Amino acid sequence: MSSQPNLKELERRAWRSMHDDGLWELFLGATLLILGVSALVRVESWAIAVHLILSVGIVVSMVMAKRLITVPRMGVVNFGPGRREKHRKTTALLLFSFGLGAALFLAIASGGSISTWFRGNLGLVNLFAGVWALVVFGGMAYWLDHPRLLFAGLVYAAVFSHLLPVGTAMTALVGGTVIIIPGLIMLIRFLRKYPLPTGAEVHDNG
After folding, report:
1. How far apart are CA 204 and CA 202, in angstroms?
2. Listed range (167-171, 189-193, 196-200) with the worst mean pLDDT
3. CA atoms of 25 and 29, how far apart (whole Å)
4. Nearest Cα to Cα of residue 94 among 143, 22, 34
């Protein structure tokens, strides 16, 4: 009976250690940088295609970085059903958010009645976007047990709500940089704390 809390604490520490690599911060910061660059160019068919390709590329890079950087150092840990369920919820929330954002982006860029409504209700749309960013990142921070994501949520909310007296491109570029810098610091610390042994293989700790 007395060992059960210790096992839960060990699992919690292992779970948090998996997110100490800074990759989430790099992923989220890079996404904002792409948004900032997109806001600087005219919305044309080729620009939309490049934006979507880069967004998919960031997601793929995130997955590959986890496998090539984090897993060889931390191993493959089989977490309990509670942790796995939280991970599934986080993934579903992210996929829904990205899908919703892409759909709205295409609807606005293509013109028509939807684009007209959005342009005529920018205040309401911006407020909803800011609140939605806080909801998404709040859920991620809770389910991933990663409180630092709340900071990223505040940055995203500031960018999406357009409350700051600065253009979207500038806030997105600055916000992305602000998120990426601590991510790089975390990644460097992670690599120093968990050096990859020569000839190391990925082991299953489950």
Report:
1. 7
2. 196-200
3. 6
4. 143
Are 175 and 158 spatial neighbours (Cβ–Cβ below 8 Å)? yes
Q: Which long-range contacts (CB under 8 A, 24 or more apart) does 50-54 make?
A: 51/105, 52/102
78: CB partners within 8 A, 6+ apart: 204, 205, 206
Are 170 and 40 spatial neighbours (Cβ–Cβ below 8 Å)? no
Query: What are the tens digits of pLDDT across the range 8-64?
Result: 777 777 777 777 888 989 999 998 888 888 777 755 556 666 666 777 788 788 888
Helix (H, G, I), strand (E, B) or coil at 37: helix
Nearest residue to 26 (alpha-carbon basis) of 190, 185, 192, 195: 185
- Residue with structure tokens 């190391």? 200
pTM to 2 decimal places = 0.74
Token output for 82: 């509670």
pLDDT in tens, 79-95: 777 777 887 888 888 88
